[in-house]
Structures are given as C-alpha cells and as structure tokens.
Amino acid sequence: MTREAKLLILPGLLLLAFFLVDKLFLLRTVRIHTQKDPTSLYYEYKYELLEKLALEFSPESARERKEAAERAKESGQIARPHRALVVIGSSRLLFFDYDTFRRNHSEWEVYNFSVPVNSPAYYAYILERIYESGVRPDYLILESDPFQFNEFSPGFRRSNLQYSFDLRFILSNFDRFDRDDVSAFLGRWLFAGMKYPPHPDRLSMLINGNDRLLPLFLETDRYTRETNGCGFSPIPVPGWFEKDFATLAISSEGTKGWLYGNYTESETQWSFFESALALARENKTPLLVIRPQVSRPMQRQLEEDERIAFYTESWRKRLDKARARAPFLDLSAGEPFYCNAFVDGAHMAMECYDPVLDEAMKRYTEARDGASANHR
Q1: Cα dihedral sign for 139, 143, 148, 149?
Q2: Beta carbons of 96 and 354 less than 8 angstroms apart
Q3: Would you list the domain boundaries of the chain?
Q4: Which of 50, 154, 236, 372 could form a disulfide with 350 if both were Cys (CB 3.0 to 4.6 A apart)?
Q5: Residue 198, preceding bond cis, omega within 30 degrees?
Q6: Could you read off the pLDDT of 252-301 as tens digits, one per residue?
C-alpha cells in the first residue's frame, strides 16, 4: 500500500473509531453510570411505554377488556382495567403513586408520559404516536402553565429537544421549529456524546469506586418501568417537606428566573399545544387541562412580577379559547384542593400528588360531556 493510500485511509479509520466510541453512550448501562441525573431515563422509558400502551389498548385489546369487564360484573370476578388514562405533564404530574391510583380507580389503567420541564411540542409528539398506533385513550389529562410558553426558557432545549422527538417529527414540523433547534436536534441525533454528555463528577465517582448516585439511577429505572411511567425521585420523598418559608422563597426565585426569565410568548409552543388539543378533539378523547399548584412564595412572586402577570393573563385567555369545551382545573388559587406542603418552590410534597390526580378524575364526566359536545 502506498504512502498516499495510507494517508487517505487513516482519517477514515479514526472517524470510524470515534463513531464507535461515541455510540457507547447509547448503552443504558453506560448512561446510568455517567449522567448527572436520571432525566434521560424518564424520556427513554416513554418510548417503551408507547409500545406497551399500543399492545395493551389496541382496538382489539380494548374491546376484549371491555367485554371481560362486563362479564366480571355479572359473575362478581375481578377483571383487568378496561379504561386507559393518559397523563402528560411536567414533573408536577410525574410523581403520583401508581398503586394508590389503582386502588382508588380499579377500572382504570394509567400511562404517565410526564417528564421534567415539559412543553406542548412534546404533547403533540406523544399524542401523534398514540393515535397513529390505533389507541384511543378513554381520558387525557394535559398540564398547562405559562412557563411552557416562554420563548426564552432554556427548559425546552435542555429537556424535550435533548431527549425526545424523532427525525420524522422534526422534519414534518420543520417550519415550526427554530433553525438553531433543528441543528441542535440533528447534532444530538448523530452524536450520542452530545445527547448524553458524561458528567465529570460521575466519572470521578466511577473511577474511585464510590458512585453514590448509582442506587438512585437503578431504583428510578426499576420503579418507572413497573409503574407505567410514574416517577421515582429523591425529591419529593414521602414524609418530607420544606419547613423553612425563607428557603421556599429562595427556591422560588431561582425557578422563576430559570423558567420565566425574559418572558416572551412562544408562537411555536402555542401552535403545538393547539395541535395536541386538535388531535384529542378529532379522536373524541375526553380531555382535562390542569394547572398544578406552586408554593405560596412562588405564586406571590409570579403575581407581583408585572411582566409575568401580563403574560399569565394572556396565557389564560388563549388557553380558554384553545380548549373550547374541555374543562380546566386551575389549582393555582388553592381550590378545590389546597396543598400546604412543598419540597421546593415549584413542587408539592409527595402526599399532595395523589389528591391532585383524584381531583382530576372527578372531572372525567365533565370532560366526556365536553368531548361529545364538540361533535354534535
């Protein structure tokens, strides 16, 4: 082989080696040992949850479940849940207890697609995949909050854009996304190291044989799979809440600055939110829109900030128009359920998650009637 040929082959071999090493970060075992937090695990499982939902509530399976439920009523036996509830929200709808829900609502099976710092683009993506699989959920709960519609919030780019979507969704909605967002997605789609960058502290722990976070990652992975997407997290945890009001205020200020900073309405996210609602209407799915509660210090800070208050009122008017006859459960005012225990400015204590979901389930009949009215 000539010297010139070797010079041509060597860069190709180096590039191939780079891609092979890069793809190691796609392995779950590698990510569990190198990521700074379990966020990617929540997103990863949602793809598996889509497949599970499509299998368990395909048109044929849904019909069989309903027929079995009718027979069980006559015989007094216990049948599998014959109604499918789909929940899509942020971490504020992620951590309710699966077993408690099943005990309280035995006719329902829940599929929780909530992920940290969520956005309407993710709603549209998940619902597209659900409906194209042939599944028709019996009830859909969507979270909505002004922070999801802030053009300059880094939340969308650090969560949804980094860990979710597929190439088909990006290309089919190319005209909606910012070009920088498309470039960022393509970079992470091509290079696993960009999508799942290893964290120096985790690498140091791994090298020193003292990975204190590994049990959290393993338990998160196990629990999420066993509970149809419900989250496991060290915060919130049962029986603990923040008792210092000043600490809550400091936490609230940080969250407000991160999610609501330089607030400007995102027409992109509004277009995706309207698409998600349109999908639910077209498929006659009973829908509830919910705004979870935040701590009193954070709620006060949001109300006292004139810019945020202005855009919150704008968000409310646009939401009322977009949701049409779908009911809206706004818990920000503390009615009909008030949580007085929070682990930080934005997140309720664990004990409040289940009552919030119970309140949402009470609106099923109203949501069903609203879905029917849309097709009269």
Answers
A1: positive
A2: yes
A3: 23-373
A4: 236
A5: no
A6: 999 999 899 889 999 999 999 999 999 999 999 999 999 999 999 999 99
